[in-house]
Amino acid sequence: MNRGSVEGIDRRKRPEEPDVLIVERFYEDLRRECSLSRFTEGQVVSGRIVSPTVHRPGLALAGFTAKYPYQSVQIIGEVEGEYLKSLSSQARRKTWGRVLIQGVPLVIFADGCVPDATAAHMAARKKIPLFSTHFSAERMNAVAGTYLRDYFSLKTSLHGTLVEVYGVGILYVGLSGIGKSECALDLVSRGHVLVSDDIVHITCRSDRLVGMCNELLGHHMEIRGVGILNIQHLCGIRSIRSQKSIDVQVELVPWNSEGNYERTGIDESDVTILGVSIPHVVIPISPGKNISAISELIALDLIARKNGTNSAREFNLKLISSMKMKNPPQRFALRFPRRSFKRKERNTW
């Protein structure tokens, strides 16, 4: 049963514009991590990246350009560099003409390679920025690919609290003041990990939801009647983490005697966030109910189900099997043999 869907867009872009990444931002974000350097200082880096993929143009250099993904970030490694060195000046000019076409956002020369004069002149004429790094082509491909996939992935923000319980990411949602932060605080005191409170930024990575804390709020938590608490300072570095995959959503709702709540666990509910479905559990709140203990059981039950053990279904099959038995088990009662309690006549002398 599908509970519903929650869709969102990245707030840093206007909905009517396509998702784009300015080359200048790409360079600034990866400059230190990848030791990127501009081949020519002052070169124009205002181009746009519209594809989340990274490509090594080996086939395009060899002459096959039918499926050349020119809108991707291009990486030239040691193998491509050695091939270009083996060509004559005329063949090299023709080869670069196939690769450096209009629409290429940028080219990164990895493995310490340096662009030749032909590539530099052609790139400057077509306003294609060139960068170089001592990283290997494989490593640069992995780092840039991860960065681009994260940037272009779907994003949204939800009002809730995200906690890691036994390695399971539990996203708590519900009305304001219902007790999400208090439940998270109790779980942290039990040794579990806080990811985010009040605002959870969610991104979709390879059909997997990842929740992150707000950069400004960090790991602060608001407890009504107490105030704002810094969980990292009070509970230590082991009680927090910056991001966690979301495995289940727990919705806290006020108790209603007429509410229809799940009693057996056989009918599983799910919720869709950014096109990804995750399990959804509704917990009615009433005085004296230990939500933290229930949360731990939810995490353990989810781990058991992923490993092939479903307690509710196993118990249901056990009941069905018991009802289908021809001779159901009977109660045993102690039966004593009947005895005659007639008094024996004594012989009299």
Classify the helix fraction into a percent range. Answer: 25-40%
Instruction: Write the CATH homologous superfamily of the largest domain.
Output: P-loop containing nucleotide triphosphate hydrolases
What is the total tally of β strands?
18
Strand order of the largest sheet: 1-17-18-16-10-9-11-12-15
Gross CATH architecture of the largest domain:
3-Layer(aba) Sandwich
Total domain units: 2
H and E string: EEHEEEHEHHEHEHEEHEEEEHEEEEHH
Q: Report the uncertain regions.
A: 5-18
Number of helices: 10
* End-to-end distance: 93 Å
Looking at the structure, the CATH topology of the largest domain is Rossmann fold
Strand content: 25-35%
- The first-level CATH class of the largest domain is given as Alpha Beta
Radius of gyration: 33 Å
- Structural class comes to alpha/beta
Question: Can you describe what's shown?
Answer:
- The protein has 10 helices and 18 strands.
- It is of the alpha/beta class and 349 residues long.
- The protein has 2 domains: 131 residues, HprK N-terminal domain-like (Udp-n-acetylmuramoylalanyl-d-glutamate--2,6- Diaminopimelate Ligase, Chain: A, domain 1), CATH 3.40.1390.20; 152 residues, P-loop containing nucleotide triphosphate hydrolases (Rossmann fold, 3-Layer(aba) Sandwich).
- The longest helix is centred in the middle third of the chain and has 16 residues.
- About 4% of the residues have low confidence.
- Strands 1-17-18-16-10-9-11-12-15 form a 9-stranded mixed β-sheet. It has a 5-stranded mixed β-sheet with strand order 3-8-7-6-5. It has a two-stranded antiparallel sheet with strand order 2-4.
- Helix content is 30%, strand content 26%.
